[in-house]
Amino acid sequence: MVILTSVLTTGALTLTACGSRDDSSKSGDSGGGTTLTIGVDAPLSGENSTTGLGIQYGAQIAVDDANSKKLVDGVTFKIKALDDKAQPANGQQNATALVGDKSVVGTVGPLNSGVAQSMQQVFASANMVEISPSNTNPALTQGKDWQTAKKRTYKTYFRTATTDALQGGFAADYAYNGLKKKKAFVVDDKQTYGAGLAKIFADSFTKLGGKVAQTDHVNTGDKDFGSLVTKIKNSGADILYYGGQYDESALITKQLKDAGVKIPLFGGDGMYATTYIETAGKASEGDLATAVGVPVDTLPAAKTFVETYKSKGYKGDYGAYGAYSYDATMAIINAVKAVKDANGGKLPTGDDLRSKIVDAVQKSDFEGISGKVSFDEYGDTTNKQLTVYQVTKGAWKAVKTGTYNAS
C-alpha cells in the first residue's frame, strides 16, 4: 500500500538528498572546564564540496549556539572538520583519525553513502556515535537484506535524513501520477547511493504502471555523454531518471537538451544543489530533484540558522543538508548533557563517555530546526518528510512536499 500526502508550495530551499581543520582540542576536567570535540567528515574540496561545506558549517553553527547558551554547564564544544573528497578510503582514514583523538565524542557525516560504508566499522569498534545528515542508502541502517529482512548492523550509526526507500518511491509517484510520464530511461553512476536510488525508482515506477525503456550507467568524472544521449533519444522515453550527484547530471542534461531531446531529468537529493543549475544553465529549466525534508520557509525554527549562515559568509549550500547537520550536531550535544546529568553532573571518562553518548543519542527526542529529531530501532530518523523541487526561472522551486510510505 502506498500512502502519499502532499502540500503544494513555492519555497526556495529545502532543509534536506552530497575545509578547515582545528586540531587544538583538549579533554578532561580542569579549572577552565572541559573541551569536547565533534568531528565532521564531508567532501570539503573538489567533487560534492558545495553540499559538503554546508554540512561543515551547519555543524559549526550548532556548536556556536550551544556554547553561547552554555547548554552543557562546564563544557565547551569545538568542531574538527576533515575532508574526505567523496572518497571511501579518505573517509576511513578520517574515521580512524577521529577515533584516535581522545577529545572527540562523536562525528557528523559523511555526505556520501559509499563513504559511510568505509567508516561504520571504525566508529562501531570504538563505540563512538556517527550521525549522517545526508546518507540515504537503506542498507546503512537496515542491512544488506533490508528489502526482505531488516537487521541493524551498527548501533553507533544514525542519520537525520530519510532513506532512498522512501525517496525513490516518492519520485516515481510524482513522475507517474504528477507529471503523467509513462516511459522512463534510468541511469546511475554505479555508486552505492546512485545505483541504489535508481533501482528503487525503476522498481516503483514499474509497479505504478510505468515502463522503464532502458537502463544504463556512467562513471563519476565522465564529461562526454554523447553515446548515452543517443540511446536516450532513440528510446522514446518521456523522462530521464538519474541516480547520482550533480557533477555528472548537470552535464548530462545540458548535452541532452543540446541534442534536441527536450525531456526533463529527474534526480535525487545528490542533485539538489545550486551548482547543478549554475553548470547546466538554461538546459536545467524544468528538471527535477527530490530532497529530504521540507522547504525552509515552512519551518520558522530555521530562520535564525539561515540568517546566521548568510551573515557569517559561509561557503557551500546550506539548503541541502545544513539544517540536518545542525540537528545531528545538537543530538550529540544533547546526549552529552543527558550523560552528564545522569552521572551526578560529572562527565564519565574515555570510552565510557563515548559508549553512554551512543545510548543517549538513541533516546533523542527534541524539536530541531528541521523538525522533530528522534530515531527508530534502526537508527533512522522518524522524520519522513520529502520534497520535489523543479528548476523554474533559474532556481529550485518546491512543487510538492509530503510523506511516502510503501508497504
UniProtKB/TrEMBL annotation:
A Pfam family assignment: Peripla_BP_6
Q: What's the family?
A: Belongs to the leucine-binding protein family.
Q: Which CDD domains match?
A: PBP1_ABC_LIVBP-like (cd06342)
Q: Which InterPro entries match?
A: Leu-bd, Peripla_BP_I
Please identify the protein, giving its name as recorded.
Branched-chain amino acid ABC transporter substrate-binding protein
Q: Does the keyword Ligase apply?
A: no
Q: Give the record's keywords alphabetically.
A: Signal
Every copy of the Leucine-binding protein domain together lies at: 35-394
Q: Does the keyword Transferase apply?
A: no
Q: What ranges does the record give for the region Disordered, renumbered to this chain? A: 19-43
